Amino acid sequence: MNKPEKLSDAQRSTALAELTAHGWQVGEDRDAISKTFTFGDFNEAFGWMTRVALIAEHMNHHPEWSNVYKTVKVTLSTHDVGGLSALDIAMATKMDRLAG
Amino acid sequence: MNKPEKLSDAQRSTALAELTAHGWQVGEDRDAISKTFTFGDFNEAFGWMTRVALIAEHMNHHPEWSNVYKTVKVTLSTHDVGGLSALDIAMATKMDRLAG
Q1: Model's pTM, two decimal places?
Q2: CB spacing of B64 vs A68 below 8 angstroms
Q3: Which InterPro entries match (chains A, B) (predicted)?
Q4: Model ipTM?
Q5: A100 close to A58: Cβ distance less than 8 angstroms
């Protein structure tokens, strides 16, 4: 996988328009995006996390996330570039798709 | 499984003496215990979470937890009793054992 690069202004505004329409929020105090996913129960929430974890390992790009029973709050940012990269946009899109 | 009950003062002090010796901290603003587990990498951290998740489903007692790469911060408390119960002590002990 190529080394991630920070998004350009144009890439950023296209990607964020799409993601914010799907419930993602841009960080106020850091260049990151967050979303809270709510499932039917713990089984569904952790099942989703497990599918995402396998993708994260494959991408070598890992979310920051917290789980309380049926909710999972996710924050995505790319440590190596100090902000949002294409990896975060790809991960957010995959998370949404898996959450159905 | 029996309905959980809040720990008595005696049960509490015995259990907490043991757990705080293993790195658990008692909540300052709520009746809960917390610990941050650090693993070798994401694979180990999420592998541990998966084993804990299966136990949590079996016990019908779920942690609040957050994961950032190789660290997992856990908080345990029993919603139904508004504080610590024997379920939290049992879960904390299992988590420590699985973390090795």
Answers
A1: 0.94
A2: yes
A3: PCD_sf, Pterin_deHydtase
A4: 0.94
A5: no
